[in-house]
Every structure is written in structure tokens, then in C-alpha cells.
Amino acid sequence: MARSYSIYDVFTDTKLAGNPLAVFFDGDGLSDADMQAIAAEMNLSETVFVQPASHPTHSARIRIFTPARELPFAGHPTVGTAIALAERAYANRSDAIDLVSVLEENVGPVRCGVKLRSGEASFAEFDLPTTSSRYSMPIDREAVAEALSLNPTAIGFENHVPGVWSAGVPFLLVPVHDLAAMASLEFDPQFWEQAAPLCEGRLTSAYVYCRGGRHHQASFHARMFAPDMGIAEDPATGAAVAALSGAIWQFDGLDDGHHPLMIEQGVEMGRPSFIHLHIDVKGKSVARVRIGGQAVRIASGVLEL
Fold first, then answer.
1. Which of 12, 25, 236, 260 has the smallest number of Cβ neighbours within 10 A?
2. Which run of H or E residues covers position 256?
3. What is the pLDDT of residue 200?
4. What is the tens place of the pLDDT at every residue in 93-121?
5. Which residues are designated catalytic?
6. What stretches of the chain adopt beta strand conformation (E)?
7. How many other CB atoms are found less than 10 A from the CB of residue 278?
8. What angle do CA 26, 44, 304 make, to 5 degrees?
9. Across residues 187-196, what is the average pLDDT?
10. Phi then psi for 138, rounded to 5 degrees?
11. What global pTM score does this model have?
């Protein structure tokens, strides 16, 4: 059966930048093994399979696969799929369109807002289905530094210290001093397997970040390495930014109010990505978190099985 798909570059308005994503528009009838094999064949950070929604008011159910395993939730597949479905549904319209869709992911329903504008890259943002929380577990700072080929003194800045955080997918967040340390680090997957803790039965992925960035509007600069997902380095990781929101709230002591931030990633890979993060704090607690970005379609095709 022929199955149509598109590839989008996500968290960018520029083709051949951002994080590429494959979206299969007819994933119904595929087994878990079929979807995993197709994701391995596509060999992108994530591949999405769109299926009919179980709730009549929801837009679709989506399954998200890395080359190695399925994820319950991820940011760039959510943004890219929301945009892909909206552009497909309104392909014959040239006026400005704002719409809301709900995607059913394994983590639960995810509400997305989408903006379509003629001549511009489309934009989507979603509400986090669950806020970020920290796992209480010891972290061997020297072992983590060795896995990143960094001096242990380069780990941490201000109040930020390494720790495992999750808003659906756990990451070991590793703050480092500055952009120079970010540029110089070399990730060693064998040392990482010894240094990083297991969480929910799986090796945690590395999300390394520092304050600032190359882009003048960047609040933080990040890199992500996920050997357990079959991803050597990821150009943009919305699920990690979701986890980071909890660390920013705690370590920066965010006051009540709205906090817009921009996270850049993928710079060292030559695929710069820009992730919009909005944290609303009320009563000294995180009340709402939104993540968004643009995406551009770069290819479409048919898979013949």
C-alpha cells in the first residue's frame, strides 16, 4: 500500500535548517514493528504516523518514533505535525488562518495553536500536557564531565546544577559555563553509558545548555545527545526544552508573571533551530508552559510497501 508523507524542517523558517521530521498522513493499519522499521528507514530524529483520533473533537492520534524506539511525547513532532495537518487541510486558502487542534499522543491530548500566513513559514505552539518535575537521584559530576570531554569546573553556572528533569521524557540536564565550553565538548556514548543514570528503565539522554547564545535574542544555547534513542546529536529537542522549563523556574527563581524565552540549538551541527518557550508563573508555581516554533515543508513523497 502506498502511503504519502512530507518532510518538514521544524523550529526554523529556513529550509535545510532546524530539525527534519517525516510525517506519514495515513498510519492506520501499520503495526508497531512496521512503524519502527519505517522510522529506521527514514533515519531522522523522529518520524510521525498520523492515525484517526479516538475522540470526535480531536484532530488526530499520532505515534512518534525515533530510529530506535517509540516516544510518548516530543516537541518537534508536535509542532511539525500540527503545521503539516493544517497546511494539508487548508491548501487551497491564501488568507491568514488561526486554528486550534488537539493531537492525541501517548502522553495524553496535546492542544496546539497554528498560524498559517501566505508567504511565511507557518507557526505552531502547544501547551505542555504535564509540567516539568525533577527526579531525585545522585549525579556524578566528574563522570558526566568526562563523558562530555569537559573539565569538571566547566559544569554548572550560577544556581544551575546537573539533574534529571522530565515533562514526559526524562533528560539529564547539564548546565555548562559558556558558549566556548559548548563548542568544545565532545560527546562519548560509552562514557555516557557509565555516567548517566537510568530513568524509567532507560538510559537518560544528555541535554547540555548554557545561558545566552549566538542569536542576539537567545536566552539559552543547547545541544542534545541521545544514544538510547539512536540519535547521535539532535538539532532541536522540544521535549528537552519542556524539561528545561522546570529547571529554569527553580534555578532562576522566576517571579509570578509571564516569561518568554528563546532556546537555540543545532548551531554546532550547521542546522540552527529556535524554540520559543513561554513560562507562566502564578503563586510561585508554574501555572502553564507553552513551546512553539516555525516549520517549512521541504519534500513530499510516497512510501511503497
1. 260
2. none
3. 85
4. 889 999 999 999 999 999 999 999 999 99
5. 46
6. 2-10, 19-24, 46-51, 60-65, 70-71, 97-105, 108-116, 122-127, 133-135, 163-166, 170-175, 198-199, 202-203, 205-211, 220-226, 231-234, 257-265, 273-282, 285-304
7. 16
8. 40
9. 96
10. -70, 145
11. 0.94
